[in-house]
Amino acid sequence: MNYRQLGNTDLMVSELSFGTWAIGGAWGKTSDDEALKALDVAMDAGVNFFDTADVYGDGHSEELLAKATKGKEDKIHIASKFCRAGDIHDPDNYSEEQVRTYLENTLKRLNRERLDLYQIHCPPFKILKDGKVFEVLDKLQQEGKIRYYGVSVETVEEGLFCLENQNVRTLQVIFNIFRQKPLAELLPKAKEQGVGILARVPLASGLLTGKFSKDHQFEDDDHRNFNQNGEAFNVGETFGGLEFAKGVELSDNLKWIADDRENMTRASLRWVLDQEEISCVIPGFKNVKQVEDNLRALSVPSFSEDELIKLKAFYQKEVHAHIRGGY
């Protein structure tokens, strides 16, 4: 396992880490036993960072992380997120009293006294511009409740705005072969300012695994069913903002990336890892097999300069115009 510094913090995180939305819920059937086994496999492989949120299974993913990391609290770093358990448009949802309540509940579920990274969970731009929530986070940091804080954003514009706040230490962005826009301005500026980048949705909700056909049916409780067109939350969080059938078509046109890289999953993660501005990539998982598959991305070949140019042109000519969700 290779480790990268998380921005200008003192945290060194595994370059391939994991997000825990899927084991919490909203991705179809899950098994807690299998999830805990998968977490153990990840940690045994050197993974020392996990991203979660209080709304992932109404806190269930946080509870699973508490079980998996018991006795390893000093070695395993955890990032969580807040705000979406309430009305994200209501300024009172970001008051000191409410944010403190969110944090205390998260710490209780995680069985920790301090959180390594606390992130605002894709709030409306107006909340970020208001700025009061940052003052709350500053206070919690001064009290030692959180080590650092950051923002999970939906758009490049929001990310650039957050970079203006010197206490924002990380940005979490949707970034994958289908979502390359951050490469142009956001990622270079973040690196320049020492802000860590967490790359989420790196497999475009599974599209970049190459395993779907256009007639695939997702389970009722899977967000890839109930949020295909943004019915429940920002459409960019599902399939990277692509309409499913179009995404399958585009994925089929990318099968060449698996040449010499074993499969599309590993190739797609390798592409994200090849971007020097990325602190770590956080794919999701539901079982041991998926964790092992994702970890194999660390050992497959990087992309050549010619391949990177080809993928950039593919994004610009074939993909960008079809992205929904604000990017």
TrEMBL record:
Q: Which residues form the NADP-dependent oxidoreductase domain?
A: 15-314
Q: Origin organism of this chain?
A: Salinibacillus kushneri
Q: What is this protein called?
A: Predicted oxidoreductase
Fetch the InterPro entries from UniProt: AKR, AKR2_Oxidoreductase, NAD(P)_OxRdtase_dom_sf, NADP_OxRdtase_dom
Q: Which Gene3D superfamilies match?
A: NADP-dependent oxidoreductase domain
> Which Gene Ontology molecular function entries are recorded, alphabetically?
oxidoreductase activity
Which CDD domains does the entry mention? AKR_AKR11C1
